[in-house]
Amino acid sequence: MADDASTVPVTVLVPGVLRAECGGESTLTLRSGPTLGALLDQLGATHPRLHRRIRSERSEIRRYVNVYVDGEDCRLTGVLTTPLRAGAEVQILPSVAGG
Amino acid sequence: MSHILCIGTEKGLFTARSEDDRKTWEIGPPQFQMTNVYAVGVDKRSSTTRLLASVTSSHFGPSVAVSDDLGATWSEPDEPPLAFPDSAGVALVRVWQFAASPTAAGVVYAGTQPSALFKSTDGGESYDLVPGLWNHPHRPEWGAGFGGQAIHTVLPHPSDPDRLLVAMSTGGVYRSTDAGESWSPANKGIKAYFFPDPWPEFGQCVHKVARDAGDPERLYAQNHHGVYRSDNGGDSWESIADGLPTDFGFTMVAHPSKPGVVYTFPIEADGSRYPPDFRCRVYRSTDAGAAWEVLQNGLPPNDFYPVVLRDAMCTDDAAVTGVYFGTRSGEVFGSADEGDSWSMIAEHLPDVLCVRAFQV
């Protein structure tokens, strides 16, 4: 994505269980449009295997995946419309589920 | 000659291997850990045996992986190998069944939850929705069983590439005679006791359908109460439950080469999901369901409570056919002599969801 005024730099924190889907990286630094939805779309283009673990083909965040934007649960801040500031930290975490 | 037994469980895929004609087995560590493996496919149409695995993480969703080295390593594409198009308005929950076409190279079908049929032309690496079934006018009325709404049976015709049969819970049996372009229900004679009209055109909760080894028009069905046979490719069904201790269960497995031979593992009832009399017993018919014999030599003689799920029973392709089943309490039993005698292959595994066996 172009480095222009419509994009913001974002850091994505990848949980250990998903790092194999992005070359073993624990942190991804990229630019995206200024919403969480734009960031996830960007991930779909640059890291499709990681992206499909987070979202279904309907672009919905999977039920037992939590995404925090600057420490706030995105489900409480507008989900895909959650705004991203320049330098935002987006953390992906599996929820407490299963056994 | 080696024998391979793939065991799909609630917590991964286990692969057992026997080098002594199925007398002893070595079981490898779980692969796809913490995923449920509802389906394994074995495609032996080319010189390289290809395995397909339906793997679903409760956190990270479903996928399909393939292995061309008998399960030593697996691969997945970057893009979802199997996904609904935007127009469908739903997301894939999981794949319940793989079926390699016996008549079309590279073609693999997948039955899914929600109930849909997908087709691959690249050996099972990527799939497209079969729109003819998805757009069927009955689809809004198809329901969901306790395990979810799914197509769990896919039977391509052994010699006619245009003919396909699927079964779903709930919805029943549907057939196509034009390579999946159009579909018709095929449930005449199968009871749906849970409806005010127990003999509907569709809506039955068929649990599994198997095709006879000798006559492709002969089919066997385990229903949600009711065990049936069709001698006309599904035009009509008649009960073959007489001789079984109950008419409930999930499994129905046809012998791969002997006409008229079929196996099942009955369960007491819908509302009493234990083996009849709390005994671990397989039933076999050698006359297409006219009579049934109990098989229990080597099976646990004492109280036994777990059930066998619809894909947790299978045969292999050895010269003397092996029969296998796994339980929801993580035991796997096998017979190297067509069911006459049994031994335990594994215990203390997670819930067994499917088994598939073959020789290499």
Topology record:
The complex is a heterodimer of chains A (99) and B (360).
Chain A: E1 8-13, E2 27-32, H1 36-46, H2 48-54, E3 65-69, E4 72-73, E5 88-94
Parallel strand pairs in A: 1-5
Antiparallel strand pairs in A: 1-2, 3-4, 3-5
Helix pairs in contact in A: 1-2
Chain B: E1 3-9, E2 12-18, E3 26-27, E4 35-43, E5 50-57, E6 61-67, E7 94-100, E8 108-113, E9 116-120, E10 128-129, H1 131-134, E11 150-156, E12 164-169, E13 172-176, E14 184-185, E15 206-211, E16 219-223, E17 227-230, E18 238-239, E19 248-249, E20 253-254, E21 262-264, E22 266-267, E23 282-285, E24 293-295, E25 313-315, E26 323-326, E27 332-335, E28 343-346, E29 352-359
Antiparallel strand pairs in B: 1-2, 1-29, 2-3, 4-5, 5-6, 7-8, 8-9, 9-10, 11-12, 12-13, 13-14, 15-16, 16-17, 17-18, 19-22, 20-21, 21-23, 23-24, 25-26, 26-27, 27-28
Characterise this structure:
The complex is a heterodimer of chains A (99) and B (360). Chain A has helices at 36-46, 48-54; strands spanning 8-13, 27-32, 65-69, 72-73, 88-94. By secondary structure, chain A is of the alpha+beta class. Chain A has a single domain, classed as Beta-grasp domain (Ubiquitin-like (UB roll), Roll), CATH 3.10.20.30. Chain A has a five-stranded mixed β-sheet with strand order 2-1-5-3-4, covered by helices on one side. In chain A, helix 1 (36-46) packs across helix 2. The model of chain A has no long low-confidence stretch (mean pLDDT 94). Chain B is globular and about 50 Å long. In chain B, strand 9 (116-120) and strand 10 form a beta hairpin. The termini of chain B are close together. Chain B has one domain: Methylamine Dehydrogenase, Chain H.
- H-E order of chain A: EEHHEEE
With strands numbered from the N-terminus, the spatial order across the biggest sheet of chain B is 3-2-1-29
- Helices and strands of chain B: which structural class? mainly beta
| CATH architectural group of chain B | 7 Propeller
Strand segment count of chain A: 5
Classify the oligomer.
heterodimer
Number of domains of chain B: 1
Q: Which sheet architecture does the biggest sheet of chain B show?
A: 4 strands, antiparallel
Largest interface, per-chain counts?
Answer: A-B, 18 and 18 residues
What is the CATH superfamily label of chain A?
Beta-grasp domain
Q: How much is the radius of gyration of chain B in Å? A: 19 Å
Strand content of chain A: 25-35%
Shape of chain B: globular
Number of helices of chain B: 1
List the strand order in the largest sheet of chain A: 2-1-5-3-4
Q: What shape does the CA trace of chain A take?
A: globular
Round the mean pLDDT of chain A to the nearest integer and report it.
94
Helices and strands of chain A: which structural class? Answer: alpha+beta
Gyration radius of chain A, in Å? 13 Å
